[in-house]
Amino acid sequence: MQSEGTTTEPVHAGRHGVGDQAPSALWNAPLAAATATGTLAAELERVADKVLDGGRITPEEGLLLHEHADIGLLGQLADEVRRRKHPEPIVTYIVDRNINPTNVCITDCGFCAFYRRPKHDEAYVLDREVIVDKVRETAELGGRQVLMQGGHHPYLKSDWWADLFADLRQRFPQINLHALSAPELDHLSRIEKRPVEEVIADLTAAGLGSVPGAGAEMLVERVREIIAPKKTTTDKWLDVHRKVHEAGLRSSATMMFGNVETPAERIEHLERLRALQDETGGFTAFACWNTQPDGVPEQHLYPPRTTPGVYLRVQALSRIYLDNFDNIQTSYVTQGMKMAQITLRYGCNDFGGTMLEENVVSAAGCMKLEGIETIERMITGAGFAPRRRNSWYGIVDERHDGPCFPKSREEAAVRPAGSASLAEVGS
């Protein structure tokens, strides 16, 4: 078995003073030969057998795999977990569009090249008709979803968003509004001085269909205090998603790695997500990507982008660790099509969205949007059948001979005992 070679995760130095808490300046990926015999080999074999038998690994075992399993073993284990959850050789994707109604934000994240402060010359809020035209174009192209996120705008409140959602829902009932991340919902709660549950209820009644997993970055407070000190805390991010699930909506989860976190903190992030999924069952999918440092406001403080080997390692480990997540999504927008194709054998069963428009990642100079034909060719080339899906992972492809379930937010709803249905809430 070939080694993945040497990967580098430089220390994030500079004014933040990360010091000894940062990853090592030079991290050598484990060689297959180094763990062929001895106590470490026996431990890896034990954990691998546990995964293959369908067992749940502990944080300590997750860290063992991260630090000592070679990339071939991780791929084998992740592919087996994917196959167990999705025995049919299908990889899904969604026809969607990213719309950013505003780029105004006051959280000043140093890794974000998209945002602008209020009153900046390049700050904007899109006119309603511009947004409507973008959604109309998406619908005409057979789209099923628009991902709408802005920033932490100090003056746009939930009534602005609710009015927009209600208008779009009436005009385009076939388009799901996958909108407003947990930090944005928390921001609305704070500037309106009311519980986030009320904000979620009002937006759901207006037409919010599901909530994206953005803003998670790294769910470890030490890391968040360095890279996003003004953004929602770890516990608050998780609690907002808990409240979203309690309201009946589904949401996704994400992780941005490769900045100042340690390997153990990557595992901690996955553990926090797994624990909440055990509690609510409300997450539809998980996606991860490495920090894209090019062109961001504090580029000089961030380490170079992590290597493809590290991305595959974390991607595979997420599939192994998140045993209660049905779907793992690749990130061709940040990694490119060829790497995304490889990840289909490293645990991913979903290719993400066509993203007819993308602004946040492209602002960092790494936009890699591709057409539907290219996405399908990559999926087919990896040995799978491509199928279009909706926001809740129901297959809506004419080539699919089975039922589409779930086909709406109501069918996908998380239903705590005694709660009202989403049909009742949205009526």
Automatic annotation (TrEMBL):
<keyword id="KW-0408">Iron</keyword>
<dbReference type="GO" id="GO:0016765">
    <property type="term" value="F:transferase activity, transferring alkyl or aryl (other than methyl) groups"/>
</dbReference>
<feature type="binding site">
    <location>
        <position position="181"/>
    </location>
    <ligand>
        <name>(3R)-3-methyl-D-ornithine</name>
    </ligand>
</feature>
<dbReference type="GO" id="GO:0046992">
    <property type="term" value="F:oxidoreductase activity, acting on X-H and Y-H to form an X-Y bond"/>
</dbReference>
<dbReference type="InterPro" id="IPR022431">
    <property type="entry name" value="Cyclic_DHFL_synthase_mqnC"/>
</dbReference>
<comment type="similarity">
    <text>Belongs to the radical SAM superfamily. MqnC family.</text>
</comment>
<feature type="binding site">
    <location>
        <position position="105"/>
    </location>
    <ligand>
        <name>[4Fe-4S] cluster</name>
    </ligand>
</feature>
<keyword id="KW-0949">S-adenosyl-L-methionine</keyword>
<keyword id="KW-0479">Metal-binding</keyword>
<feature type="binding site">
    <location>
        <position position="331"/>
    </location>
    <ligand>
        <name>(3R)-3-methyl-D-ornithine</name>
    </ligand>
</feature>
<dbReference type="InterPro" id="IPR020050">
    <property type="entry name" value="FO_synthase_su2"/>
</dbReference>
<feature type="domain" description="Radical SAM core">
    <location>
        <begin position="91"/>
        <end position="349"/>
    </location>
</feature>
<dbReference type="GO" id="GO:0051539">
    <property type="term" value="F:4 iron, 4 sulfur cluster binding"/>
</dbReference>
<dbReference type="Pfam" id="PF19288">
    <property type="entry name" value="CofH_C"/>
</dbReference>
<dbReference type="InterPro" id="IPR013785">
    <property type="entry name" value="Aldolase_TIM"/>
</dbReference>
<keyword id="KW-0004">4Fe-4S</keyword>
<dbReference type="GO" id="GO:0044689">
    <property type="term" value="F:7,8-didemethyl-8-hydroxy-5-deazariboflavin synthase activity"/>
</dbReference>
<comment type="pathway">
    <text>Quinol/quinone metabolism; menaquinone biosynthesis.</text>
</comment>
<feature type="binding site">
    <location>
        <position position="112"/>
    </location>
    <ligand>
        <name>[4Fe-4S] cluster</name>
    </ligand>
</feature>
<feature type="region of interest" description="Disordered">
    <location>
        <begin position="1"/>
        <end position="20"/>
    </location>
</feature>
<keyword id="KW-0560">Oxidoreductase</keyword>
<dbReference type="GO" id="GO:0009234">
    <property type="term" value="P:menaquinone biosynthetic process"/>
</dbReference>
<feature type="binding site">
    <location>
        <position position="111"/>
    </location>
    <ligand>
        <name>S-adenosyl-L-methionine</name>
    </ligand>
</feature>
<dbReference type="InterPro" id="IPR006638">
    <property type="entry name" value="Elp3/MiaA/NifB-like_rSAM"/>
</dbReference>
<dbReference type="InterPro" id="IPR058240">
    <property type="entry name" value="rSAM_sf"/>
</dbReference>
<comment type="function">
    <text>Radical SAM enzyme that catalyzes the cyclization of dehypoxanthine futalosine (DHFL) into cyclic dehypoxanthine futalosine (CDHFL), a step in the biosynthesis of menaquinone (MK, vitamin K2).</text>
</comment>
<keyword id="KW-0411">Iron-sulfur</keyword>
<feature type="binding site">
    <location>
        <position position="217"/>
    </location>
    <ligand>
        <name>S-adenosyl-L-methionine</name>
    </ligand>
</feature>
<dbReference type="GO" id="GO:0005506">
    <property type="term" value="F:iron ion binding"/>
</dbReference>
<keyword id="KW-0808">Transferase</keyword>
<dbReference type="Pfam" id="PF04055">
    <property type="entry name" value="Radical_SAM"/>
</dbReference>
<dbReference type="InterPro" id="IPR045567">
    <property type="entry name" value="CofH/MnqC-like_C"/>
</dbReference>
<feature type="binding site">
    <location>
        <position position="109"/>
    </location>
    <ligand>
        <name>[4Fe-4S] cluster</name>
    </ligand>
</feature>
<protein>
    <recommendedName>
        <fullName>Cyclic dehypoxanthine futalosine synthase</fullName>
        <ecNumber>1.21.98.1</ecNumber>
    </recommendedName>
</protein>
<dbReference type="InterPro" id="IPR007197">
    <property type="entry name" value="rSAM"/>
</dbReference>
<dbReference type="InterPro" id="IPR034405">
    <property type="entry name" value="F420"/>
</dbReference>
<keyword id="KW-0474">Menaquinone biosynthesis</keyword>
